[in-house]
Please model this.
Amino acid sequence: MKRITEWLLCLLCVAILISCSTVAFTGRKRMLLYSNSEIASLSTQSYYEFMSTSAPSTNMVTTSMIKDVGNRLAKALDRYLAVKGESDLLDDINWEFYLVRSNQANAFCLPDGKVVFYEGIMPVLTTPDLIAVVMSHEMGHAIARHGNERMTQQALSNMVGAVTGMIIGQKTSETGRAVFETAYAIGSQYGYLLPFSRKHELEADEIGLYIMAIAGYDITQAPLLWEKMAQAKTTDVPEVLSTHPSDAKRMKNLQQLIEKARKYSKSN
Ligand SMILES: [Zn+2]
Model:
């Protein structure tokens, strides 16, 4: 048994070494154990499950606003990365933008690039720039491969559990699908994604700001949106913009990044 445990730990170390990479735009080191195509196929399944219990919005004006902002951001990002020779950062991401009927003030992006806005968030997002703040943040999660990283963390903790289970004589195994569902629960049961970590949220804010700049949107609207959220606290606070991390921390983080983000507008 000791030999098997040592062998498994060795295998784990090798997996860690070969799966290390850096996050687009921020350069943070992270570990991804899953392939982009594997995650994309799980995302697509989740999306269809989610849509089977949701209805597309009948508000054509707002729907086309969502699609217009999304397409402008996606096109600009595509062009920017192509010029830099980094189009592979978008492997297995195919942007699609949707608005669904729901009073929830929310939005999410699946790892394969499907971005879903709920009607309930739209009263706060009164201009294309404000829509771009939330949209680019959601796209940031996909480009940073936060879903894969979350699944990796889940799988590693399962692996530790499995090794412990072997030592104490229990059998555990989880398929990629089960790991995805634990790490990325959407659909009828939850209706929205489980919250990302504070680190992932701040990173998506940062990447989102750069994408906004690349696409020529007004980046100063990003900290302003969070200010608006803080003021609206007593009423309806969008879950996507909830207090985790706190509005104050987000605003400060975004304000500090504005100058850096301006360089991306110039590079376009
Ligand atoms: Zn987020």
Remarks:
- Residues 187-193 have pLDDT under 50 and may be disordered.
- The radius of gyration is 19 Å.
- The pocket of zinc ion is lined by residues 137, 141, 196, 201, 204 (CB under 6 Å).
- The CA atoms of residues 86 and 221 lie 28 Å apart.
